[in-house]
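Practice problem 4.
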């Protein structure tokens, strides 16, 4: 069974038909990249998986989005609980104006967990998984805002991991970062894939080629081609994909 599945998904923002009949399946413990020119619907589609589009007025979603075989739009699910299983990392690192420790512990605290030993262990484990522990272990009380952009983004990933999601959605997670921080995030994505299902929106073709197992190419709200990443970049079936990945448009 696919971890994530979309069946004939159509999404409208008012009159604007932003996603047109998208169907695709995503396997567990894989990295899937969404690529395509600006405005083609990548972020909109990504947000369908954690129902973040619910927060947008005028947005209407049709079709089915299944997680572990369950339709998250039709079944009466608890959206807040659901979002806990689906972590999200945004383009700009968005740590809270709190200490490094409290940023990571935040999700646990709002779930009512206050047991100090458990919090300490989870904060350490999450920071280790996010490859940040060695850099911050002596400064856990320091403000998260004092970290570099790349460290802040890894902190946001640690914050996401602390509540043990099974899926991590990443919307251009490295586009605001320098090349060294970007390389760290890419390495991290590679390491996390053993335990999580990762979907990443990226404008960076090399990044998609480096980090993902499968790539989906979107254009004007349609899914044009979806295949193993090596096929998309070296032997795409559609001309539009070929033109995009070789930089002829977009
Ligand atoms: N909140 C919104 N209200 C109305 N239209 C929207 C909204 N968000 C996105 N759109 C429109 O939906 C279409 C798809 O946008 P989306 O942000 O998903 O594209 P994208 O491929 O992620 O683009 P980018 O690469 O520039 O981030 C665009 O035409 C956009 O203008």
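Answer key:
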């Amino acid at each position: 069974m696919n971890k994530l599945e979309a069946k004939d998904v159509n999404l409208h923002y008012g009159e604007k038909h932003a996603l047109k009949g998208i169907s695709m399946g995503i396997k567990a413990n894989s990295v899937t990249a969404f690529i395509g020119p600006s405005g083609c619907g990548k972020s909109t589609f990504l947000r369908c998986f954690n129902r973040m589009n619910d927060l947008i007025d005028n947005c209407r979603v049709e079709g089915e989005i299944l997680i572990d075989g369950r339709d998250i739009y039709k079944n009466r699910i608890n959206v807040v609980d659901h979002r806990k299983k689906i972590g999200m990392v945004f383009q700009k690192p968005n740590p809270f104006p709190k200490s490094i420790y409290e940023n990571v512990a935040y999700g646990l605290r709002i779930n009512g967990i206050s047991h100090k030993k458990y919090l300490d262990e989870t904060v350490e484990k999450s920071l280790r998984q996010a490859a940040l522990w060695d850099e911050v272990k002596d400064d856990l009380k320091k403000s998260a805002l004092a970290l570099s952009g790349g460290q802040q983004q890894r902190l946001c990933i640690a914050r996401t991991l602390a509540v043990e999601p099974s899926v991590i959605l990443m919307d251009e997670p490295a586009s605001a970062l320098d090349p060294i921080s970007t390389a760290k995030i890419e390495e991290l994505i590679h390491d996390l894939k053993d335990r999580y299902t990762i979907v990443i929106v990226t404008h960076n073709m090399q990044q998609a080629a480096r980090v993902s197992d499968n790539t989906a190419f979107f254009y004007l709200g349609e899914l044009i081609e979806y295949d193993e990443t090596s096929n998309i970049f070296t032997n795409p079936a559609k001309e539009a994909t070929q033109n995009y990945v070789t930089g002829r448009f977009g």
